[in-house]
Amino acid sequence: MIIIPARLNSSRFANKILVDILGLPMVIRTAKQVSSLDKVVIATDSQEVVDLAKEYGFDAIMTSSSHNSGTDRINEAVNILNLSDDEIIINVQADEPFIEIEVVQAVINRVKKVKENNEDIMITSCYKEISSELADDPNHVKVILDEHSNAIYFSRAKVPYHRDHYENASYSGHLGIYGFTKKSLNAFCKLNPSKLESLEKLEQLRAIDNGNKIAMVKVQSKSFGIDTQEDLNNALKIFKK
User: Fold this and answer.
1) How many CB atoms within 10 Å of residue 146?
2) 14: which of 93, 113, 115, 196 lies 20 to 30 Å off by Cα?
3) How far apart are CA 69 and CA 73, in angstroms?
4) Neighbours of 237 (CB within 10 A)
5) Average pLDDT of the residues in 9-35
6) pLDDT tens figures, 151-175
């Protein structure tokens, strides 16, 4: 199941999930983008979003307005839905209206492999190669991988540091698509927030801080999350047909 956490209020871009994206509200455009892969449910704290979802034929669940993260919101949703512990849950952010279905499918496939092989993995996510210039932007989160393609660390800083100053150095840019089983999602949300998570404002660090593994899949993607009006303007230039 794909669950889209859809908090109406946004500090940097008011009501951004409702802005028009090529004729559709952003959250609906995102839902339609991934609806061919699995059932889509929108988890929100807004009756307006619930009504909008129904208007476009999507299921929506009202969740608490007190959640600190989208992951906590989808965790409440899966518990309301009373899903089985081995149900695959994919968290697709509402501000990813142009995410490629191949990217989401890659995460789904990796979670299936985790289940089949009974791997000790709490979260599955993905990354792409980004340029040194993009890596300078703290909004483009970087991930450091071990030799098994598991995440060692996520940072807004430009890491790893290339001491030899490679002119064409590339970096691993994290994409905020997360895959769980319901059981691993519940386990993650029971963890206390960690110090590194609080410093970087990156909730996935909570898993690593507590000794859990995050499996990473390399993907090709031109998409990016829309956090500001500038992001929206850039996205429309790139993806408008």
Assistant:
1) 11
2) 196
3) 7
4) 8
5) 86
6) 999 999 999 988 877 767 889 999 9
Question: At a CB cut-off of 8 Å and minimum separation 6, what does 136 contact?
Answer: 158
DSSP notation for 174-229: EEEEEEEEHHHHHHHHHSPP-HHHHHHT-TTHHHHHTT--EEEEE---------SH
CA–CA gap between residue 136 and residue 155 (Å, rounded): 11
- The 3-state DSSP class for residue 239 equals helix
Q: Which residues pair with 143 in a beta bridge?
A: 154
* CA proximity to 50, closest of 68, 65, 67: 65
**Mean pLDDT, residues 7-30:** 84
Q: Which value, in Å, is the radius of gyration of the alpha carbons in the chain?
A: 17
Distance (Å, whole) CA 123 – CA 50: 28
Gap between the Cα atoms of 33 and 179, Å rounded:
17
CA 4 to chain centre: 9
* Lookup result for tokens 């404002």: 201
Q: How far apart are CA 5 and CA 93, in angstroms?
A: 6
Look up residue 22 and give its amino acid.
L
